[in-house]
Amino acid sequence: MLSHEFTxxxxxxxxIFAILALGMFYYLVVWxxxxxxxxxxxxxxxxxxxxxxxxxxxxxxxxxxxxxxxEGKVVGEISVYNxxxxxxxxxxxxxxxxxxxxxxSWSDPVLDGTIVRRQVAVSFHTTSYQNLLNVLQKMSEMxxxxxxxxxxxxxxxxxxxxxxxxxxxxxxxxxVTFFETTDGAVSLAGLDVPAEEDSEPGTLEERAHAYDDx
Length: 214
What we know:
alpha+beta; two-stranded antiparallel sheet; 5 helices; 8 strands; rod-shaped
């Protein structure tokens, strides 16, 4: 069996090599791993993300406030049934200015006493956050009484430098309910009039069908 007694010089070299190997291991396994984690959680990136989320939340709150304010005040007239064609024209004027790819899906009108509720599901595309806000503002202030609900927005991201939403691909959907009245209507065709309303001559049922064949 061979044996070798290391000299002081060899022992010193082995110690230096061990220290270098340990240092390399620490650098590769520990230090670089910690550095990568620090980079992944860079405080500037976190702050930027927080600012973006805060801006998005603030602008969402602004949109909701536009809708809530419109609900809290009486805006627009309750038109005489059937006013659907005028409602379409008014909406077209609003969307033509600030939106495109507009889709309207109308539900059957619902009669409640003398009030008719006519709901339309709306989807549209805008090229800026301001255009989206313009649509909501104009809809809430239009000449015909309506209520906006179930608003969803996708595809926009805040610009923290300008403080304004910039995007060329903003999509939105919402439900709009128009309110009309049967008082003064010359025809109630298209309405499902409850049987109990037809108790006397000249009631809603007769008026609903009086002009069906004209």
